[in-house]
């Protein structure tokens, strides 16, 4: 009988653990649901006693966050780590998480058209409405979101204060396309195909832009690397730029 009850407790714990993993890692009620010219996004304002104009921090999700519900993109763990940083550092910022709709992908691929170009009108709108400091616009993205960052910054190389790309490949670009934009690039050591490609890409960028960092996250596969990349030290580096 005791063994029976023990098995029940283990099974219940397993189910609860699965449910916790599937639950959003941020409190959605704290993020306003917004839409601008067809682009869905979530937004939260972080206020502080700082009298400076707020920064704009934009997170671009990976492919699993695509949809038309303005919710799926919020389930990625990196968002919570960035949120925690903004809170603990009392950073005056507007945190925005747009959603790439179903049928598109940020940078485009043979099967899905690009959607990244729709973010420039959104950024311009938020900058105006929230009186954003134009010298403090930051892009952070994972996987497909990181690929979108490469595409957007190649088109607008002097627009952003700094960018953080976690496990997002840069395909079809030249290092000079990005001007002097500061980049922090990370990849998991277990992402076998991405490690050599991003290592070579870092070397190319670093030859013409000394303000680039690159870390290989030991022991991490793609999913873990897309979350655990957002450490305090790396975010300190990103947000120190303006």
Describe this structure in words.
Helix content is 36%, strand content 20%. With 242 residues, the chain is α/β, with parallel strands linked by helices. The protein has a single domain, classed as Alpha/Beta hydrolase fold, catalytic domain (Rossmann fold, 3-Layer(aba) Sandwich). The protein has an eight-stranded mixed sheet with strand order 1-2-4-3-5-6-7-8, sandwiched between helices. It is globular and about 40 Å long. The longest helix is centred in the N-terminal third of the chain and has 21 residues.
Major sheet strand order = 1-2-4-3-5-6-7-8
Q: Helix-strand pattern, N to C?
A: HEEEHEHEHEEHEHH
Rounded average pLDDT: 90
* Beta-strand residue percentage: 15-25%
Q: Per CATH, which architecture?
A: 3-Layer(aba) Sandwich
What's the tally of helices? 7
| Biggest sheet architecture | 8 strands, mixed
Shape, please?
globular
Relative helix content: 25-40%
What's the alpha carbon Rg, rounded to whole Å?
19 Å
The overall strand count is 8
**So what's the CATH class?**
Alpha Beta
CATH topology: Rossmann fold
Determine the N-to-C terminus distance: 65 Å
């Amino acid at each position: 009988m005791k063994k029976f009850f023990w098995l029940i407790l283990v099974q219940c714990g397993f189910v609860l653990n699965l449910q916790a993993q599937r639950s959003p890692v941020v409190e959605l009620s704290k993020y306003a649901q917004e839409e601008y010219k067809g682009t869905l996004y979530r937004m939260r304002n972080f206020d502080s006693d700082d009298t400076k104009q707020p920064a704009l921090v934009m997170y671009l999700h990976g492919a699993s966050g695509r949809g038309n519900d303005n919710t799926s993109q919020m389930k990625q763990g990196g968002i919570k780590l960035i949120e925690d940083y903004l809170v603990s550092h009392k950073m005056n910022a507007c945190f925005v998480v747009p959603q790439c709709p179903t049928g598109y992908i940020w940078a485009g691929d043979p099967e899905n058209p690009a959607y990244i170009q729709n973010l420039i009108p959104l950024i311009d709108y938020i900058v105006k409405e929230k009186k954003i400091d134009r010298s403090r616009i930051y892009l952070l993205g994972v996987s497909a979101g990181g690929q979108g960052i490469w595409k957007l910054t190649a088109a607008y190389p002097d627009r952003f204060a700094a960018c953080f790309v976690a496990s997002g490949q840069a395909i079809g670009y030249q290092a000079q396309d990005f001007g002097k934009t500061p980049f922090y690039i990370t990849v998991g050591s277990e992402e076998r195909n991405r490690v050599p490609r991003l290592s070579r890409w870092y070397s190319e960028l670093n030859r013409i832009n000394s303000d680039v960092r690159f870390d290989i996250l030991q022991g991490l596969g793609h999913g873990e690397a897309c979350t655990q990349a957002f450490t305090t030290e790396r975010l300190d580096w990103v947000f120190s730029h303006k």
